[in-house]
Design goal:
The protein has 14 helices and eight strands. The protein is an alpha/beta fold. The protein has one domain: Rossmann fold (3-Layer(aba) Sandwich). The chain has a six-stranded mixed sheet. A two-stranded parallel sheet has the order 7-8.
Length: about 325
């Protein structure tokens, strides 16, 4: 009897492991194939991959931690939807996707904001709407503090601000320690899990496996140890002159940080996406509608006003080497 129980448990475990492997393989395939062929440029010694499409006023899209331009912007339909009206540019952040992955924390931090400016220089774009999600939201908020003259507007979405960064950024160090020690991305899932929906052990195992497969552990750890450099002080938010939009899911655990940002940041409009959580908000029709409305209301009359040059003809892709 005991032997049969052990055999049964072993069979269940084998099926579970096989399921995790199969699901992880599918997620890896989707991650790789959601990205777009594009081009590269050198950003202060780091090779950055980007894609662009459409013509009109420039819009730059900045993805979140552990994603790439395809997962964050192409799969939810935002990249192609916006390209019908705008010149849309999206990049793989350093440490992600097809971009270079340095292992030195000093190569991250504000360098990620500077990558956006250098990409705009590379493409001869004087000013652009700059939209970020999750970690990308924190990066574009920092860019707004550093280079407001290069932006038509800023949209730090799925993110926010805290008046107590020493306390709240401790999570980033905890996550870095977990990844560096090989324990995985469990703390990230705990932090971003939809409100009222606990994390199961199976989901924790699957997400950690997927994130480990598609990310360079040393690069992600280096990035996480650099996030203190992305802090924005309250005075900078109160003095903001740019049109600003915060899109946040009603069930996103980062909503308190978005609310805190909305309470102090001048010119900011906060739009709460019903039923949206951190993982689903970008795929909600209400999210795209709110973003399109904001961009339309804050765009110059012509693309030349923003870019200074005639935009490239659609589509504008180069095969990534």
């Amino acid at each position: 009897m005991k032997k049969r129980i052990l055999i049964g448990m072993a069979a269940v475990l084998a099926v579970a492991v096989a399921g995790v492997i199969a699901f992880s393989g599918l997620a890896w395939y989707q991650y790789e194939h959601s990205n777009l062929p594009g081009a590269y440029f050198d950003s202060n010694g780091v090779r950055i991959h980007y894609a662009e499409e459409g013509e009109g006023t420039p819009v730059v899209l900045v993805h979140g931690l552990g994603a790439n331009l395809g997962m964050n912007w192409v799969r939810p339909g935002i990249f192609h939807a916006l390209s019908k009206t705008y010149r849309v540019v999206a990049l793989d952040l350093r440490g992600h996707g097809r971009s270079g992955k340095p292992h030195d924390p000093s190569r991250y931090g504000t360098e990620m904001a500077e990558d956006i400016v250098r990409l705009m220089d590379h493409l001869k774009i004087e000013k652009a709407h700059v939209v970020g999600y999750s970690m990308g939201g924190f990066i574009v908020l920092k860019m707004a503090a550093m280079h407001p003259d290069r932006m038509l507007s800023v949209a730090p979405c799925g993110s926010g601000w805290t008046p107590t960064p020493d306390k709240d950024l401790a999570f980033m160090r905890l996550l870095a320690d977990s990844i560096e020690s090989g324990e995985g991305y469990g703390p990230l899932l705990d932090r971003l899990q939809p409100v009222g929906k606990p994390v199961s052990a199976a989901r924790r195992m699957m997400v950690s496996a997927i994130m480990s497969m598609r990310n360079d552990r040393k690069a992600v750890t280096a990035l996480l140890r650099s996030v203190d450099a992305l802090r924005v002080d309250e005075a900078a938010l109160r003095n903001n002159k740019l049109p600003a939009l915060s899109l946040i899911g009603a069930r996103d655990p980062l909503k308190p940080f978005a609310d805190q940002m909305a309470a102090v940041m001048a010119q900011l409009r906060e739009e709460v996406i019903p039923e949206g959580d951190h993982f689903s908000t970008l795929g909600k029709p209400a999210c795209l509608l709110a973003l399109e409305s904001f961009l339309a209301g804050n765009s110059p009359a012509t693309a030349a006003d923003a870019a200074g040059v005639k935009p490239a003809q659609q589509p504008k892709f180069k095969e990534a080497a």
